[in-house]
């Protein structure tokens, strides 16, 4: 398994005065490098334990391309029938970009109604000029929307009333795990606001297998093996629990082995999902537009504990 790149220069001194903290995190590979870097900037040691894999497949790319290419001798693509394109993840944007690469012409004609493209937090960085140019020769037809609250419900609020308009929603197809309620609720909320949401399985989220819990199991057997674990999605939590079960363990056993472990969630949606699976959360990032929020929340938690102990 290829681990996220480490910095080529010495890690700075830890922000807390206990020791060099070890932070386990369960993000898939496409997010691992970013979070690993932020953990190291705090002077901590990252321990990457991906519990899900997230990737595009030939089938998912073909599903996206279906909306980008004219079919049945029609002059326009199916995307012309939509008023909005709503991304709930960075991976969805990346998958859509891959499909755009194999499209010979932009799916939107230069003249027509504005298409609103919405994305959460730092994910919107991928909706750059190159992405817009591949969507339409006329950038005036594209409106980028970034909700002030980086959650699916925040995205629904920012889109406003649908009034019977259609919104294309590139979301994951979940394989080997129960689908978390996030996407179904997102689609339901859009419907309640008068939109006609069309689900598009743009990529696959799969359980990474029992091996993903090996480092957590080994470290949990050591005295103070790791100090915190960070979850960035509900699927990651379920993936870890499923893997622990393969080793004859459950979450409470890990908690007993690591009584000082801090469990952190990237935002309230992940925290709620973890709690529903029986995994208690100690720290929730209030700034969840980027991973800086959850790392800063961990730092604040330990500083508070140090003040109580001093």
From TrEMBL:
Family matches, as InterPro entries: 4pyrrol_syn_uPrphyn_synt_sf (IPR036108), 4pyrrol_synth_uPrphyn_synth (IPR003754)
Pfam (any one): HEM4
Domain of life, source organism: Eukaryota
Tetrapyrrole biosynthesis uroporphyrinogen III synthase domain location: 34-288
GO molecular function, one term: uroporphyrinogen-III synthase activity
Record GO biological process: tetrapyrrole biosynthetic process
SUPFAM superfamilies (alphabetical): HemD-like
Name by which UniProt lists this protein: Tetrapyrrole biosynthesis uroporphyrinogen III synthase domain-containing protein
Species assigned in the record: Anisodus acutangulus
């Amino acid at each position: 398994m290829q681990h996220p790149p480490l910095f080529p220069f010495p890690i700075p001194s830890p922000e807390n005065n206990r020791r060099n903290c070890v932070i386990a995190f369960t993000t898939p590979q496409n997010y691992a490098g970013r979070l690993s870097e932020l953990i190291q900037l705090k002077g901590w040691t990252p321990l990457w334990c991906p519990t899900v894999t997230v990737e595009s497949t030939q089938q998912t790319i073909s599903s996206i391309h279906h909306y980008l290419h004219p079919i049945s001798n029609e002059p326009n693509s199916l995307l012309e029938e939509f008023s909005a394109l709503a991304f709930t993840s960075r991976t969805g944007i990346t998958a859509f970009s891959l499909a755009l690469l194999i499209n010979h012409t932009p799916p939107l004609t230069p003249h027509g109604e504005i298409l609103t493209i919405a994305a959460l937090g730092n994910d919107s960085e991928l909706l750059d000029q190159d992405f817009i140019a591949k969507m339409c020769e006329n950038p005036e037809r594209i409106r980028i929307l970034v909700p002030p609250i980086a959650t699916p419900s925040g995205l629904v609020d920012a889109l406003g009333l649908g009034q019977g308009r259609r919104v294309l929603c590139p979301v994951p197809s979940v394989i080997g795990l129960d689908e978390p309620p996030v996407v179904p609720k997102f689609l339901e909320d859009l419907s309640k606001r008068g939109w006609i949401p069309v689900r598009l399985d743009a990529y696959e989220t799969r359980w990474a297998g029992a091996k993903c819990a090996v480092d957590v199991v080994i470290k949990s057997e050591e005295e103070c093996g790791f100090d915190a674990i960070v979850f960035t999605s509900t699927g990651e939590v379920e993936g870890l629990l499923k893997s622990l079960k393969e080793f004859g363990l459950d979450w409470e056993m890990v908690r007993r082995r690591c009584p000082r472990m801090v469990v952190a969630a990237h935002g309230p949606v992940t925290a709620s999902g973890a709690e529903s699976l029986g995994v208690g959360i100690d720290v929730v990032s209030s700034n969840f537009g980027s991973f800086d929020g959850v790392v800063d929340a961990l730092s604040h938690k330990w500083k508070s504990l140090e003040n109580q102990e001093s």
